[in-house]
Every structure is written in C-alpha cells, then in structure tokens.
C-alpha cells in the first residue's frame, strides 16, 4: 500500500485477498499478535479483512497517540454500528461522540457510586452473592456468569433508579467477532458467523432501553431528577441547538442508545473481570490470605467495606489491577481511526487508517512486568 511505503513500517505477515490476515488469527489470535510484535516491532501494519490496520504494542506510544485528538475517530463496522446505529457512544464519533461521552461520564459520577443510596444497593447485591456462595459450599458450579445479575442490577439502579432488572443472557460474540474484520461474511452465512444471535441480543437490550426512556419521560420531575435517565431527559429539554445530538428527538434516540451501550457493554466487562478475580484468588491462596489480613486490619468485621476505604486498601486494589492486566478482557481495546494525516515519531499516519492497541501484548510483556509475566502477582502494581 502507498502509505506503508511512506511510513517505512514493517509489513506484517503476508495477507490474502478479501480476508487479509484474518485466517492467521483463527487459533489463539492474541498469541499470534504477540508473536507478530516480537517479529515486526512495536509498530507494524497488517490487513484485517479489507482494512489496512496499524498495530501498536508499546504502552508509551499507545498513550501518546490516543491522547492526540487526530486519533479520536472510530472505525465503522457492522458490530459496533448495530449499537445505536451511529448514535450514543459505542457507534458514534466526532463532536457528537465527545459530547455524549463527556455528559455520560459526568452524570454517572453524580448519580453513581458517589451516592450512598446506590452504594448501599450494590452492597446488598454483594451480600446476597456471598450468601449464595455459602449455600454452594461443597458443590460444583458454573463460575463464568456468577456476577452478571449483581452487576447489571447495580448498573440498572444507577441508570433507571429501579432495583431489579430483567436479566438477559448476554451471549459472547466469539463467532461474530470475525465479522468485525470481514463484514461481508454476515451476508454469506449470518447464522453460522454469529450475526443473527448478535443482532437478536442487541435488539432485546435496546428494546428495554426504549421502554425505560418512555416510562421516565411520562414520570419526569425536572426539579427532582432520580437517576441518569432523568438527568439526560432534562438535558434534552434544556438543549436549543438543532445541531446538537441532545436536541429533541435526536436526543431521545441518543439517550436510548447510551442506555443500551451501558447495559450491553458495561455489564459484561465488569462481570467478566470479577469472574477472573475470583478465579485468580482461588488459585492463589496466599494472595487471598493477604487481602483478608488487610481487610481485617483496615475495615474490621463490624461493618461492610465501603468505597471510602479505597485509599487504605492498596493491596486489595492491586489485586484488581493485576486482574485487569492478566485477564486483558479487552485485549485490543477499541479500534481508533485517524481523522487527519498525522506525523507520529517519524511516521505518517494517514487519514482513515485504523489503529489497534495491542493491549494483551503490552500486558504480557516480560520487559515491563518481569519474567513471571504470566503469573498472578499483585505486587507487580507497587
């Protein structure tokens, strides 16, 4: 490709028409990408489906580039676009994406864990989960979906003010992920490649979001907002700029998309992280013992742990950070798209090229984390 010649970036493995390097990623794709980084360096180019893509596997380079507004574009692919069809956060980009993300982050802080009532609700969910574990002593159980209920109930409380959520089985999209790289496959065999299952799940989530928004619209008291949806509806009423993504019906559509984004994306990542944390603690009894000692010393047994205790529980926090590193549940992050031609460390990154961060590779780099990089050791975070 023309830009590869300008960049002088090492081309990755030889690709084939239409599929690019996708077939080479069928088995253990994260290991494959990790090996490519060793062979081609921290910046190299591959072809995913029909798209030329640059992979960056150096933490400093990733942080620097993604802090540049020119890398804030999003790739348009069928999986992410089906979330809200260009609205909300996941499938949005540009000024609308920035406005939606900024408002959402700010309001989630206002109505989220910082409110004692919501923290209390989450702690009730945690207590119920502990009691469930106690009833399962001596029994075998499936651990991958243990936290889905408590996590999504807590999230739903913050979004809608309601305590109970009708749990949907969020299915993994392992098959559908190939469509991310080769979109045309959804037209050839949509059921086989997971497209049908994917759209069914997303449709169900967004239908619940629409019902919640409609209910809140009828009950809204602008002087007494109860939750995130209420705050967003007030923002819609206050918006007078017709070009804004918060304006009138566009705002309603965006709200439904944001709620759907948070339900579908936020709940799955949080519950999966908690499942990995549980697994790592089960496999590392000494780590479990140290965490319990810290909790006994700093919190005691007379009350529940609180978010206010965070600063006095460094080892417990290190366990969570080590869980995120070792599990790498979003191993390639969110693909970025360059919105302008940009010079970066001597390379020209052309407009519209896709940038992927090799987060799994970074999180498993022995040069950064030591030779025991594949071992669960919270002390790495100190």
UniProtKB/TrEMBL annotation:
<keyword id="KW-0408">Iron</keyword>
<keyword id="KW-0503">Monooxygenase</keyword>
<dbReference type="GO" id="GO:0005506">
    <property type="term" value="F:iron ion binding"/>
</dbReference>
<dbReference type="InterPro" id="IPR050182">
    <property type="entry name" value="Cytochrome_P450_fam2"/>
</dbReference>
<dbReference type="Pfam" id="PF00067">
    <property type="entry name" value="p450"/>
</dbReference>
<dbReference type="GO" id="GO:0006805">
    <property type="term" value="P:xenobiotic metabolic process"/>
</dbReference>
<dbReference type="GO" id="GO:0005789">
    <property type="term" value="C:endoplasmic reticulum membrane"/>
</dbReference>
<dbReference type="InterPro" id="IPR001128">
    <property type="entry name" value="Cyt_P450"/>
</dbReference>
<keyword id="KW-0256">Endoplasmic reticulum</keyword>
<keyword id="KW-0479">Metal-binding</keyword>
<dbReference type="GO" id="GO:0020037">
    <property type="term" value="F:heme binding"/>
</dbReference>
<keyword id="KW-0349">Heme</keyword>
<dbReference type="GO" id="GO:0006082">
    <property type="term" value="P:organic acid metabolic process"/>
</dbReference>
<keyword id="KW-0472">Membrane</keyword>
<keyword id="KW-0492">Microsome</keyword>
<comment type="similarity">
    <text>Belongs to the cytochrome P450 family.</text>
</comment>
<comment type="function">
    <text>May be involved in the metabolism of insect hormones and in the breakdown of synthetic insecticides.</text>
</comment>
<dbReference type="GO" id="GO:0016712">
    <property type="term" value="F:oxidoreductase activity, acting on paired donors, with incorporation or reduction of molecular oxygen, reduced flavin or flavoprotein as one donor, and incorporation of one atom of oxygen"/>
</dbReference>
<dbReference type="InterPro" id="IPR002401">
    <property type="entry name" value="Cyt_P450_E_grp-I"/>
</dbReference>
<dbReference type="InterPro" id="IPR036396">
    <property type="entry name" value="Cyt_P450_sf"/>
</dbReference>
<protein>
    <submittedName>
        <fullName>Methyl farnesoate epoxidase</fullName>
    </submittedName>
</protein>
<keyword id="KW-0560">Oxidoreductase</keyword>
């Amino acid at each position: 490709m023309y830009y590869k010649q300008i960049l002088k970036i090492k081309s990755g493995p030889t690709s084939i028409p239409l599929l690019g390097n996708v077939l080479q990623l069928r088995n253990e794709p994260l290991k494959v990408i990790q090996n490519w980084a060793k062979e081609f360096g921290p910046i190299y180019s591959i072809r995913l489906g029909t798209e030329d893509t640059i992979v960056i596997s150096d933490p400093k380079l990733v942080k620097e580039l993604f802090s540049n507004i020119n890398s804030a574009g999003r790739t348009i692919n069928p999986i992410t676009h089906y979330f809200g069809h260009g609205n909300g956060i996941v499938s949005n980009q540009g000024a609308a994406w920035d406005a939606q993300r900024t408002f959402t982050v700010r309001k989630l802080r206002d109505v989220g864990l910082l409110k004692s009532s919501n923290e209390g609700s989450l702690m009730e969910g945690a207590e119920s989960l502990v009691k469930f574990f106690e009833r399962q002593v001596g029994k075998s159980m499936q651990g991958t979906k243990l936290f889905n209920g408590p996590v999504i109930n807590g999230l739903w409380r913050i979004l809608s003010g309601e305590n109970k959520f009708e749990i949907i089985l969020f299915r993994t999209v392992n098959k559908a992920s190939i469509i991310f790289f080769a979109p045309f496959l959804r037209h050839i065999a949509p059921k086989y490649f997971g497209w049908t299952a994917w759209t069914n799940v997303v449709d169900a989530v967004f239908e619940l979001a629409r019902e919640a928004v409609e209910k809140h619209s009828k009950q809204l008291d602008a002087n007494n907002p109860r939750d995130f949806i209420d705050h967003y509806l007030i923002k819609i009423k206050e918006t007078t700029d017709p070009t804004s993504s918060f304006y009138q019906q566009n705002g309603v559509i965006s709200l439904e998309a944001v709620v759907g984004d948070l339900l579908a994306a936020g709940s799955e990542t949080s519950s999966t992280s908690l499942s990995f944390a549980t697994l790592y603690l089960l496999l590392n009894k000494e780590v479990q013992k140290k965490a319990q000692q810290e909790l006994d010393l700093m919190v005691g047994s007379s009350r529940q742990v609180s978010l206010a205790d965070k600063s006095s529980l460094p080892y417990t926090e290190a366990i969570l950070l080590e869980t995120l590193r070792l599990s790498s549940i979003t191993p390639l992050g969110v693909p970025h798209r360059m919105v302008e031609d940009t010079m970066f460390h001597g390379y020209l990154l052309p407009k519209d090229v896709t940038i992927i961060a090799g987060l799994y590779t970074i999180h498993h780099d022995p040069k950064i984390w030591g030779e025991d990089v594949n071992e669960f050791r919270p002390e790495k975070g100190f």
